[in-house]
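Q: Predict the assembly, please.
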Amino acid sequence: MLKIKLFADGANLDDMLAAYQGGVVQGFTTNPTLMRRAGVMDYESFAREVLEIIPDRPISFEVFADDFETMYRQALQINTWGENVYVKIPITNTKGESAVPLIKRLVGDGIKLNVTAILTLEQVQATNRVLSPMIPSVVSVFAGRIADTGIDPVPLMTAAAQMLRIESKAELLWASPREVLNVYQADACGCDIITATNDILKKLSMFGKDLDELSRETVQMFYDDARKAGFQIEC
Ligand code: G3P
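A: Predicted assembly structure:
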């Protein structure tokens, strides 16, 4: 039985609505890249439309300025859009300057944050020090991007979970999953949340499936496709 919460990561309104109504996810995350890919033209109108249909589950919207003063003002604004909103703050700006002072300031204002684009344990620790157990917050570590570099993210995620449990009580989110196995890895290493794409959500029903049966179904797929294609070999 999985303890971990599943959040849908995306910005397609129909998919978000289906995930909400299907009850398969407990929350949602977005980011500017996903919104652009989904063809969103007006950031605030999109966010408000999403919040109309999803008023009662955590959902993150990210600031997108690059100077900390404008990020601060965007965060205050985004925070007013709904009770269930978490403001996503990238751990640095594009110059690699730390957003920790900004995070500290926003926590002081009582704003629920999702600190994002984290890839190192040092970043987790610096964030952990300024978040408060009194204010709900999420720490998003891009485990899939860590794995993309050839590093196993599991030891880092395990250490991050222990770190956050002791100090800030922030929820640890395994971001950028690459395969269904990551859901089980994230659960086992103490993550509170994992974001999942639609493909991953669909495959969760395969849990515990008999491998002999899966092998037979795979062969059936080859057979059916060869027939449908009308392949012939003279023999
Ligand atoms: O929310 C984070 C996620 O969308 C990033 O995924 O696959 O670009 O690393 P990816």
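The chain has a mean pLDDT of 96. The first strand starts at residue 5 and ends at 9.
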